[in-house]
Specification:
The complex is a heterotrimer of chains A (about 230), B (about 220) and C (about 40).
Chain A (H helix, E strand, L loop, with lengths): L8 H33 L13 H28 L2 H33 L7 H22 L3 H34 L13 H33 L1
Chain B lengths: L1 H15 L1 H22 L3 H23 L2 H8 L2 H7 L4 H30 L7 H25 L6 H28 L5 H30 L1
Chain C lengths: L1 H5 L4 H30 L1
The chains are: A mainly alpha (about 230), B mainly alpha (about 220), C mainly alpha (about 40).
Protein backbone atom coordinates (compact mmCIF):
# COMPACT_ATOMS: atom_id res chain seq x y z
CA UNK A 1 0.00 0.00 0.00
CA UNK A 2 1.30 3.40 -0.90
CA UNK A 3 1.55 4.71 2.68
CA UNK A 4 3.49 7.87 1.90
CA UNK A 5 0.88 8.81 -0.67
CA UNK A 6 -1.45 9.39 2.24
CA UNK A 7 1.14 11.35 4.16
CA UNK A 8 0.01 14.42 2.32
CA UNK A 9 -2.82 16.13 4.16
CA UNK A 10 -4.64 16.71 0.90
CA UNK A 11 -4.87 13.05 0.01
CA UNK A 12 -5.45 11.97 3.57
CA UNK A 13 -8.47 14.25 3.94
CA UNK A 14 -11.02 12.20 1.99
CA UNK A 15 -9.70 8.90 3.37
CA UNK A 16 -10.08 10.26 6.89
CA UNK A 17 -13.62 11.28 6.12
CA UNK A 18 -14.62 7.85 4.92
CA UNK A 19 -12.99 6.01 7.79
CA UNK A 20 -14.46 8.46 10.28
CA UNK A 21 -17.98 7.88 9.02
CA UNK A 22 -17.61 4.10 9.12
CA UNK A 23 -16.17 4.20 12.62
CA UNK A 24 -18.92 6.51 13.82
CA UNK A 25 -21.54 3.97 12.77
CA UNK A 26 -19.48 1.16 14.30
CA UNK A 27 -19.18 3.09 17.55
CA UNK A 28 -22.93 3.44 17.90
CA UNK A 29 -23.57 -0.18 17.00
CA UNK A 30 -20.92 -1.51 19.36
CA UNK A 31 -22.13 0.73 22.19
CA UNK A 32 -25.68 -0.54 21.83
CA UNK A 33 -24.45 -4.13 21.71
CA UNK A 34 -22.07 -3.65 24.63
CA UNK A 35 -24.61 -1.96 26.87
CA UNK A 36 -27.26 -4.53 26.00
CA UNK A 37 -24.96 -7.35 27.00
CA UNK A 38 -23.72 -5.42 30.02
CA UNK A 39 -27.12 -4.58 31.43
CA UNK A 40 -29.41 -7.34 30.25
CA UNK A 41 -27.25 -10.39 29.77
CA UNK A 42 -24.60 -10.06 32.44
CA UNK A 43 -25.76 -11.01 35.94
CA UNK A 44 -25.79 -8.79 39.00
CA UNK A 45 -22.60 -8.95 40.99
CA UNK A 46 -22.79 -10.84 44.26
CA UNK A 47 -20.82 -8.34 46.35
CA UNK A 48 -21.24 -5.03 44.57
CA UNK A 49 -24.80 -5.31 43.35
CA UNK A 50 -25.73 -3.14 40.42
CA UNK A 51 -23.00 -0.62 41.15
CA UNK A 52 -20.45 -2.75 39.31
CA UNK A 53 -22.17 -1.92 35.99
CA UNK A 54 -20.01 1.19 35.94
CA UNK A 55 -17.22 -1.14 34.89
CA UNK A 56 -18.55 -1.09 31.33
CA UNK A 57 -17.48 2.53 31.11
CA UNK A 58 -14.61 2.73 33.56
CA UNK A 59 -12.32 0.00 32.27
CA UNK A 60 -12.76 0.71 28.54
CA UNK A 61 -12.21 4.42 29.18
CA UNK A 62 -9.07 3.71 31.19
CA UNK A 63 -7.70 1.38 28.51
CA UNK A 64 -8.43 3.94 25.80
CA UNK A 65 -6.83 6.73 27.82
CA UNK A 66 -3.57 4.82 27.97
CA UNK A 67 -3.80 3.45 24.44
CA UNK A 68 -4.43 6.89 22.94
CA UNK A 69 -1.45 8.34 24.77
CA UNK A 70 0.82 5.70 23.30
CA UNK A 71 -0.63 6.23 19.82
CA UNK A 72 -0.18 9.97 20.26
CA UNK A 73 3.47 9.43 21.17
CA UNK A 74 3.92 7.15 18.15
CA UNK A 75 2.54 9.80 15.79
CA UNK A 76 4.78 12.33 17.52
CA UNK A 77 7.81 10.11 16.97
CA UNK A 78 6.81 9.61 13.33
CA UNK A 79 6.57 13.36 12.92
CA UNK A 80 10.03 13.92 14.35
CA UNK A 81 11.51 11.06 12.36
CA UNK A 82 9.95 11.72 8.94
CA UNK A 83 9.20 15.42 9.34
CA UNK A 84 5.65 14.91 8.08
CA UNK A 85 3.15 17.60 9.01
CA UNK A 86 0.28 15.15 9.08
CA UNK A 87 1.92 13.05 11.79
CA UNK A 88 2.05 16.09 14.06
CA UNK A 89 -1.56 16.89 13.21
CA UNK A 90 -2.61 13.38 14.24
CA UNK A 91 -0.81 13.70 17.58
CA UNK A 92 -2.44 17.08 18.16
CA UNK A 93 -5.86 15.67 17.25
CA UNK A 94 -5.57 12.70 19.62
CA UNK A 95 -4.80 14.69 22.75
CA UNK A 96 -8.26 16.12 23.60
CA UNK A 97 -9.98 12.77 23.12
CA UNK A 98 -7.33 11.01 25.18
CA UNK A 99 -7.70 13.56 27.95
CA UNK A 100 -11.47 13.14 27.81
CA UNK A 101 -11.28 9.37 28.25
CA UNK A 102 -8.85 9.87 31.11
CA UNK A 103 -11.32 12.17 32.81
CA UNK A 104 -14.15 9.70 32.20
CA UNK A 105 -12.06 6.94 33.73
CA UNK A 106 -11.43 9.10 36.79
CA UNK A 107 -15.05 10.23 37.09
CA UNK A 108 -16.52 6.76 36.74
CA UNK A 109 -13.84 5.33 38.99
CA UNK A 110 -14.74 7.89 41.61
CA UNK A 111 -18.46 7.15 41.42
CA UNK A 112 -17.71 3.45 41.55
CA UNK A 113 -15.58 3.95 44.62
CA UNK A 114 -18.22 5.76 46.62
CA UNK A 115 -20.72 2.91 47.03
CA UNK A 116 -18.14 0.14 47.06
CA UNK A 117 -15.36 1.65 49.16
CA UNK A 118 -17.22 4.44 50.89
CA UNK A 119 -15.26 7.31 49.45
CA UNK A 120 -15.23 9.31 46.21
CA UNK A 121 -11.50 9.31 45.90
CA UNK A 122 -9.10 6.54 46.80
CA UNK A 123 -5.38 6.75 46.26
CA UNK A 124 -5.68 3.48 44.45
CA UNK A 125 -2.65 2.82 42.24
CA UNK A 126 -4.60 2.95 39.01
CA UNK A 127 -6.69 6.02 39.84
CA UNK A 128 -3.58 7.88 40.95
CA UNK A 129 -1.71 6.90 37.79
CA UNK A 130 -4.73 7.95 35.74
CA UNK A 131 -4.69 11.32 37.46
CA UNK A 132 -1.04 11.77 36.57
CA UNK A 133 -1.83 10.69 33.01
CA UNK A 134 -4.46 13.43 32.86
CA UNK A 135 -1.80 15.93 33.88
CA UNK A 136 0.47 14.59 31.15
CA UNK A 137 -2.27 15.15 28.57
CA UNK A 138 -2.94 18.66 29.88
CA UNK A 139 0.77 19.42 29.77
CA UNK A 140 0.92 18.40 26.12
CA UNK A 141 -2.13 20.48 25.22
CA UNK A 142 -0.93 23.47 27.26
CA UNK A 143 2.56 23.40 25.76
CA UNK A 144 1.24 23.38 22.21
CA UNK A 145 -1.22 26.13 23.06
CA UNK A 146 1.54 28.37 24.46
CA UNK A 147 3.75 28.24 21.39
CA UNK A 148 2.77 30.49 18.53
CA UNK A 149 5.18 29.11 15.98
CA UNK A 150 3.41 26.06 14.57
CA UNK A 151 6.55 24.12 13.76
CA UNK A 152 8.05 24.65 17.19
CA UNK A 153 4.75 23.78 18.84
CA UNK A 154 4.47 20.53 16.90
CA UNK A 155 8.01 19.43 17.66
CA UNK A 156 8.08 20.55 21.30
CA UNK A 157 4.81 18.74 21.95
CA UNK A 158 6.16 15.69 20.18
CA UNK A 159 9.26 15.58 22.37
CA UNK A 160 7.14 16.03 25.48
CA UNK A 161 4.83 13.20 24.42
CA UNK A 162 7.77 10.86 23.87
CA UNK A 163 9.37 11.75 27.21
CA UNK A 164 5.95 11.23 28.77
CA UNK A 165 5.32 7.85 27.22
CA UNK A 166 8.70 6.61 28.39
CA UNK A 167 7.80 7.75 31.88
CA UNK A 168 4.30 6.26 31.99
CA UNK A 169 5.46 2.74 32.92
CA UNK A 170 7.86 4.17 35.52
CA UNK A 171 5.08 6.30 36.96
CA UNK A 172 2.63 3.39 36.97
CA UNK A 173 4.97 0.98 38.71
CA UNK A 174 6.15 3.47 41.30
CA UNK A 175 2.55 4.44 42.09
CA UNK A 176 1.54 0.79 42.26
CA UNK A 177 4.35 0.06 44.67
CA UNK A 178 3.53 3.13 46.74
CA UNK A 179 -0.07 2.05 46.87
CA UNK A 180 0.59 -1.48 48.06
CA UNK A 181 2.96 -0.17 50.70
CA UNK A 182 0.46 2.26 52.05
CA UNK A 183 -2.77 0.37 51.72
CA UNK A 184 -1.52 -3.09 52.46
CA UNK A 185 -3.67 -5.87 51.07
CA UNK A 186 -6.31 -3.78 49.38
CA UNK A 187 -8.44 -5.12 46.63
CA UNK A 188 -7.97 -3.21 43.42
CA UNK A 189 -10.85 -0.87 42.78
CA UNK A 190 -10.89 -1.63 39.09
CA UNK A 191 -11.17 -5.36 39.32
CA UNK A 192 -14.67 -6.74 39.24
CA UNK A 193 -14.57 -9.83 41.38
CA UNK A 194 -14.87 -13.02 39.31
CA UNK A 195 -15.58 -11.97 35.77
CA UNK A 196 -18.58 -13.76 34.38
CA UNK A 197 -18.22 -14.35 30.65
CA UNK A 198 -21.03 -11.96 29.85
CA UNK A 199 -19.35 -9.23 31.90
CA UNK A 200 -16.15 -9.67 29.94
CA UNK A 201 -18.03 -9.61 26.65
CA UNK A 202 -19.81 -6.42 27.60
CA UNK A 203 -16.53 -4.82 28.60
CA UNK A 204 -14.80 -5.83 25.38
CA UNK A 205 -17.67 -4.60 23.24
CA UNK A 206 -17.56 -1.25 25.02
CA UNK A 207 -13.80 -1.11 24.57
CA UNK A 208 -14.15 -1.56 20.82
CA UNK A 209 -16.99 0.95 20.85
CA UNK A 210 -14.76 3.54 22.50
CA UNK A 211 -11.97 2.67 20.09
CA UNK A 212 -14.21 3.23 17.08
CA UNK A 213 -15.46 6.47 18.63
CA UNK A 214 -11.90 7.66 19.22
CA UNK A 215 -10.92 6.94 15.63
CA UNK A 216 -13.99 8.74 14.29
CA UNK A 217 -13.54 11.79 16.48
CA UNK A 218 -9.78 12.02 15.98
CA UNK A 219 -10.05 11.78 12.22
CA UNK A 220 -12.82 14.41 12.21
CA UNK A 221 -10.55 16.66 14.25
CA UNK A 222 -7.62 16.09 11.90
CA UNK A 223 -9.83 17.04 8.99
CA UNK A 224 -10.60 20.30 10.76
CA UNK A 225 -6.87 20.82 11.36
CA UNK A 226 -6.13 20.21 7.70
CA UNK A 227 -8.77 22.70 6.65
CA UNK A 228 -7.56 25.30 9.12
CA UNK A 229 -3.90 24.90 8.32
CA UNK A 230 -4.48 25.02 4.59
CA UNK B 1 37.44 20.13 28.79
CA UNK B 2 34.23 21.83 27.75
CA UNK B 3 32.25 19.94 30.39
CA UNK B 4 34.31 21.27 33.27
CA UNK B 5 34.55 24.78 31.91
CA UNK B 6 30.78 25.03 31.48
CA UNK B 7 30.18 23.79 35.00
CA UNK B 8 32.73 26.25 36.35
CA UNK B 9 31.22 29.09 34.39
CA UNK B 10 27.64 28.37 35.44
CA UNK B 11 28.62 28.08 39.08
CA UNK B 12 30.50 31.36 38.84
CA UNK B 13 27.46 33.07 37.35
CA UNK B 14 25.26 31.64 40.08
CA UNK B 15 27.64 32.73 42.80
CA UNK B 16 27.65 36.23 41.38
CA UNK B 17 23.87 36.25 41.44
CA UNK B 18 23.60 34.94 44.94
CA UNK B 19 20.12 36.34 45.34
CA UNK B 20 18.64 33.96 42.78
CA UNK B 21 20.07 30.93 44.51
CA UNK B 22 19.30 32.27 47.95
CA UNK B 23 15.63 32.87 47.24
CA UNK B 24 15.07 29.31 46.06
CA UNK B 25 16.64 27.97 49.24
CA UNK B 26 14.63 30.37 51.35
CA UNK B 27 11.54 29.14 49.52
CA UNK B 28 12.45 25.59 50.51
CA UNK B 29 12.59 26.55 54.17
CA UNK B 30 9.46 28.68 54.05
CA UNK B 31 7.33 26.03 52.36
CA UNK B 32 8.41 23.41 54.87
CA UNK B 33 7.57 25.85 57.65
CA UNK B 34 4.10 26.48 56.29
CA UNK B 35 2.83 22.96 56.60
CA UNK B 36 2.65 22.86 60.38
CA UNK B 37 0.73 26.13 60.25
CA UNK B 38 -1.75 24.40 57.99
CA UNK B 39 -2.06 20.96 59.58
CA UNK B 40 -1.46 21.75 63.22
CA UNK B 41 1.60 21.33 65.41
CA UNK B 42 0.88 17.91 66.82
CA UNK B 43 4.29 16.20 67.02
CA UNK B 44 3.09 12.73 65.98
CA UNK B 45 1.47 14.09 62.84
CA UNK B 46 4.47 16.22 61.92
CA UNK B 47 6.87 13.36 62.37
CA UNK B 48 4.71 11.31 60.04
CA UNK B 49 4.45 13.87 57.28
CA UNK B 50 8.02 15.16 57.58
CA UNK B 51 9.66 13.11 54.78
CA UNK B 52 6.86 13.91 52.36
CA UNK B 53 6.81 17.60 53.20
CA UNK B 54 10.56 17.98 52.93
CA UNK B 55 10.56 16.15 49.62
CA UNK B 56 7.70 18.20 48.17
CA UNK B 57 9.35 21.40 49.32
CA UNK B 58 12.61 20.31 47.65
CA UNK B 59 10.73 19.50 44.47
CA UNK B 60 9.04 22.89 44.37
CA UNK B 61 12.24 24.74 45.15
CA UNK B 62 14.02 22.93 42.35
CA UNK B 63 11.17 23.85 40.02
CA UNK B 64 11.53 27.50 40.96
CA UNK B 65 15.17 27.65 39.98
CA UNK B 66 14.81 25.78 36.68
CA UNK B 67 13.81 28.61 34.35
CA UNK B 68 17.17 30.21 35.04
CA UNK B 69 18.97 27.22 33.59
CA UNK B 70 18.92 28.41 30.00
CA UNK B 71 17.45 31.89 30.27
CA UNK B 72 20.67 33.78 30.86
CA UNK B 73 22.55 32.16 28.03
CA UNK B 74 19.57 32.49 25.72
CA UNK B 75 19.26 36.20 26.44
CA UNK B 76 22.82 37.09 25.49
CA UNK B 77 23.17 34.72 22.56
CA UNK B 78 25.54 32.26 24.20
CA UNK B 79 23.04 29.47 23.77
CA UNK B 80 22.99 29.86 19.99
CA UNK B 81 26.77 29.74 20.03
CA UNK B 82 26.61 26.51 22.00
CA UNK B 83 24.22 25.10 19.42
CA UNK B 84 26.62 25.92 16.62
CA UNK B 85 29.71 25.02 18.54
CA UNK B 86 31.80 21.90 18.31
CA UNK B 87 30.88 20.44 21.67
CA UNK B 88 28.00 17.97 21.54
CA UNK B 89 24.90 19.76 22.77
CA UNK B 90 24.11 16.84 25.07
CA UNK B 91 27.40 17.38 26.89
CA UNK B 92 26.61 21.08 27.23
CA UNK B 93 23.16 20.37 28.66
CA UNK B 94 24.61 17.74 30.96
CA UNK B 95 27.20 20.19 32.26
CA UNK B 96 24.64 22.90 32.84
CA UNK B 97 22.36 20.43 34.60
CA UNK B 98 25.15 19.33 36.91
CA UNK B 99 25.99 22.95 37.67
CA UNK B 100 22.32 23.63 38.36
CA UNK B 101 22.22 20.75 40.79
CA UNK B 102 25.36 21.87 42.59
CA UNK B 103 23.93 25.32 43.01
CA UNK B 104 20.23 24.61 43.54
CA UNK B 105 19.93 20.96 44.55
CA UNK B 106 22.92 20.20 46.76
CA UNK B 107 22.16 23.06 49.18
CA UNK B 108 18.71 21.55 49.69
CA UNK B 109 20.33 18.27 50.70
CA UNK B 110 22.49 20.13 53.20
CA UNK B 111 19.65 22.18 54.67
CA UNK B 112 17.20 19.26 54.86
CA UNK B 113 18.45 18.01 58.27
CA UNK B 114 17.55 21.39 59.76
CA UNK B 115 14.01 21.02 58.50
CA UNK B 116 13.92 17.44 59.74
CA UNK B 117 14.87 18.85 63.13
CA UNK B 118 11.91 21.22 62.97
CA UNK B 119 9.65 18.26 62.40
CA UNK B 120 11.26 16.30 65.20
CA UNK B 121 12.15 13.51 62.83
CA UNK B 122 13.91 10.54 64.38
CA UNK B 123 17.69 11.09 64.10
CA UNK B 124 18.23 7.60 62.80
CA UNK B 125 16.31 8.62 59.67
CA UNK B 126 18.56 11.54 58.80
CA UNK B 127 21.05 9.50 56.75
CA UNK B 128 18.24 7.94 54.72
CA UNK B 129 16.69 11.36 54.13
CA UNK B 130 19.96 12.85 53.02
CA UNK B 131 20.82 9.92 50.81
CA UNK B 132 17.39 9.92 49.19
CA UNK B 133 17.69 13.64 48.45
CA UNK B 134 21.25 13.20 47.26
CA UNK B 135 20.13 10.60 44.74
CA UNK B 136 16.87 12.25 43.84
CA UNK B 137 17.64 15.94 43.41
CA UNK B 138 20.01 15.41 40.47
CA UNK B 139 17.19 13.50 38.75
CA UNK B 140 14.94 16.50 39.37
CA UNK B 141 17.52 18.78 37.79
CA UNK B 142 17.98 16.46 34.82
CA UNK B 143 14.28 16.05 34.05
CA UNK B 144 13.68 19.70 34.81
CA UNK B 145 16.28 20.69 32.26
CA UNK B 146 14.18 19.07 29.53
CA UNK B 147 11.19 21.08 30.66
CA UNK B 148 13.23 24.27 30.85
CA UNK B 149 14.49 23.73 27.32
CA UNK B 150 11.00 23.06 25.98
CA UNK B 151 9.51 26.16 27.59
CA UNK B 152 12.40 28.48 26.76
CA UNK B 153 11.13 31.99 26.20
CA UNK B 154 7.45 31.09 26.42
CA UNK B 155 4.82 33.26 27.99
CA UNK B 156 3.43 30.60 30.35
CA UNK B 157 6.98 30.35 31.61
CA UNK B 158 7.48 28.94 35.05
CA UNK B 159 3.96 27.70 35.63
CA UNK B 160 3.88 25.85 32.33
CA UNK B 161 7.22 24.32 33.22
CA UNK B 162 5.75 23.12 36.49
CA UNK B 163 2.74 21.57 34.76
CA UNK B 164 4.99 19.72 32.34
CA UNK B 165 7.55 18.51 34.80
CA UNK B 166 5.63 17.72 38.01
CA UNK B 167 3.95 14.55 36.67
CA UNK B 168 7.38 13.32 35.66
CA UNK B 169 8.65 14.05 39.17
CA UNK B 170 6.08 11.76 40.77
CA UNK B 171 8.19 8.57 40.77
CA UNK B 172 11.17 10.38 42.30
CA UNK B 173 8.95 11.80 45.02
CA UNK B 174 7.34 8.45 45.71
CA UNK B 175 10.66 6.66 45.97
CA UNK B 176 12.43 9.41 47.89
CA UNK B 177 9.82 10.01 50.54
CA UNK B 178 9.00 6.33 50.51
CA UNK B 179 12.57 5.42 51.42
CA UNK B 180 12.42 7.52 54.56
CA UNK B 181 8.93 6.29 55.42
CA UNK B 182 10.07 2.69 55.00
CA UNK B 183 13.05 3.25 57.26
CA UNK B 184 10.72 4.80 59.78
CA UNK B 185 8.54 1.70 59.71
CA UNK B 186 11.57 -0.49 60.28
CA UNK B 187 11.77 -1.77 56.73
CA UNK B 188 15.09 -1.64 54.90
CA UNK B 189 14.96 1.32 52.47
CA UNK B 190 17.53 -0.28 50.19
CA UNK B 191 14.93 -1.08 47.54
CA UNK B 192 13.74 2.51 47.19
CA UNK B 193 17.26 3.87 47.31
CA UNK B 194 18.50 1.44 44.69
CA UNK B 195 15.60 2.33 42.43
CA UNK B 196 16.38 6.00 42.95
CA UNK B 197 19.92 5.21 41.96
CA UNK B 198 18.64 3.50 38.84
CA UNK B 199 16.53 6.54 37.99
CA UNK B 200 19.62 8.68 38.48
CA UNK B 201 21.62 6.57 36.07
CA UNK B 202 18.82 6.61 33.51
CA UNK B 203 18.27 10.33 33.86
CA UNK B 204 21.98 11.03 33.70
CA UNK B 205 22.34 8.98 30.55
CA UNK B 206 19.27 10.10 28.60
CA UNK B 207 17.99 13.41 29.94
CA UNK B 208 20.83 15.56 28.59
CA UNK B 209 20.17 14.28 25.08
CA UNK B 210 16.45 14.87 25.37
CA UNK B 211 17.27 18.31 26.71
CA UNK B 212 19.57 18.96 23.77
CA UNK B 213 16.84 17.91 21.33
CA UNK B 214 14.42 20.19 23.16
CA UNK B 215 16.88 23.09 22.91
CA UNK B 216 17.21 22.60 19.16
CA UNK B 217 13.43 22.58 18.83
CA UNK B 218 13.09 25.74 20.87
CA UNK B 219 15.80 27.74 19.20
CA UNK B 220 15.88 26.75 15.56
CA UNK C 1 -38.57 -0.71 34.44
CA UNK C 2 -38.39 1.18 37.72
CA UNK C 3 -36.19 -1.60 38.99
CA UNK C 4 -33.86 -0.99 36.08
CA UNK C 5 -33.74 2.73 36.79
CA UNK C 6 -33.18 2.16 40.49
CA UNK C 7 -30.14 -0.02 39.82
CA UNK C 8 -30.44 -1.75 43.19
CA UNK C 9 -30.22 1.55 45.01
CA UNK C 10 -27.12 2.68 43.20
CA UNK C 11 -28.99 4.82 40.70
CA UNK C 12 -27.05 8.02 41.37
CA UNK C 13 -23.71 6.34 40.87
CA UNK C 14 -24.55 4.25 37.84
CA UNK C 15 -26.62 6.83 35.99
CA UNK C 16 -24.29 9.58 37.18
CA UNK C 17 -21.48 7.74 35.48
CA UNK C 18 -23.34 6.94 32.29
CA UNK C 19 -24.92 10.37 32.16
CA UNK C 20 -21.71 12.33 32.49
CA UNK C 21 -19.85 10.01 30.14
CA UNK C 22 -22.33 10.29 27.31
CA UNK C 23 -22.85 13.99 27.95
CA UNK C 24 -19.11 14.60 27.60
CA UNK C 25 -18.83 12.46 24.49
CA UNK C 26 -21.80 14.28 22.97
CA UNK C 27 -20.18 17.59 23.91
CA UNK C 28 -16.98 16.58 22.15
CA UNK C 29 -18.92 15.69 19.01
CA UNK C 30 -20.90 18.94 19.11
CA UNK C 31 -17.74 21.01 19.55
CA UNK C 32 -16.17 19.23 16.62
CA UNK C 33 -19.23 19.82 14.47
CA UNK C 34 -19.04 23.51 15.33
CA UNK C 35 -15.35 23.61 14.49
CA UNK C 36 -16.03 21.88 11.19
CA UNK C 37 -18.69 24.42 10.30
CA UNK C 38 -16.36 27.29 11.09
CA UNK C 39 -13.50 25.74 9.15
CA UNK C 40 -15.66 25.36 6.09
CA UNK C 41 -16.85 28.96 6.31
Amino acid sequence: MKWFWYASPQTFYPLAGTVARICAVLAVALTLAGLYVGFFVAPTDATQGEAYRIIYLHVPAAWMSMFLYVVMALWAAAGLAFNTRLSFMMARALAPTGALFTFIALWTGSLWGRPTWGTYWVWDARLTSELILLFLYFGFIALQASIDDRRRADRAGALLAIVGVVNVPIIYFSVKWWNTLHQGASVSLTKAPSMAAAMLTGMLLMTFAFWAYAIAVTLARVRCEIREQG
Amino acid sequence: MIFKSIIGRDILVAVRRRADVGTALLFFVIVASLFPLGVGAEPELLRMIAPGVIWVAALLSCLLSLPRLFEGDHADGTLEQMLLGSAPLGVVVGAKTLAHWIVAGLPLVLIAPLLALQYDMDEALYPVLILSLLLGTPVLSAIGAIGAALTLGLRGGGVLLALLVLPLYAPVLILGAGAVAAADAGIDPAAQLLLLGALLVLAGAFAPWAGAAALRISIE
Amino acid sequence: MSEFLAMGGYAWYVWGSYGVTFALLALEVMLLRKRKREAKA
